[in-house]
Amino acid sequence: MMKLKKMNKMMAFNYFLAIILIIVFLFPVVYIISSSFKPINELFTINPTFFPVKWTLANYGSALSRGDFARYIFNSFLVATTSTLIAVIINTMSGYALAKFRFKFDNVIMLIILSTIMLPLEVIMVPIFSVLKFFGLYNSLWALIIPPAATPTGIFLMRQYLLTIPDEIIQSARIDGASEFRIFFSIILPNAKPAIATLAIFSFMWRWNDYVWPLIAISDPKKYTLQLAIANFTGEYGTDYSSILAMSAISMIPMLIVFIIFQRQFVQGTVESGMKG
Q: Mean pLDDT for the chain?
């Protein structure tokens, strides 16, 4: 009886904590969306309200009319999807090699890969920029797609998940004469769908929200991503907060769609691969 009461108290505490966390994380999102429908005078009132007193779509019309946002959204979508596709292929292959093949210094190589997580972008920014400039990729969308093609986080995630796949399945396929590519595409990929979904969500999110690297690698306004375009609403003599809020609300839509589509696989892949938030 005492154990049951203790378990009920623990569950109640967990639910309470979950509700608090949901409120904390959703508050800024809901506030941005609601504020994007406010007239400019309501944004700077002395007694602000959470929801608009007078709802308006003028902020969206103003933001969309000030730039070629269809092009910016297309650029961001192209970069995010292409980079995610390449990252999934490379990271999955790398994770498979490190999880299922035994070779000299394999653990050392994995430690070296993991150690690069500690390197901030500012440390490797200049070398990457120099390489892109050397190959003529500066000021092109490929400059945003290629550098994040392989990430230590993605390799670690895939390796940890693929370790859970029994070696006997792969050995049986080899005995039956299956090639390594056949094993990879017919056995590994179908069984790694949860981890792939997790990696795809993370990769798409990182590329879609990236601002610092596009700011360095892109100078042509026609190749701006959505984040660069939003930043341009901040001027020398003022900031157009209403347009920033409107475009920020629009920029959330693709991420919500991707997460809704892959949410079940994302949770399963995060748990089984050992990734922590």
A: 83
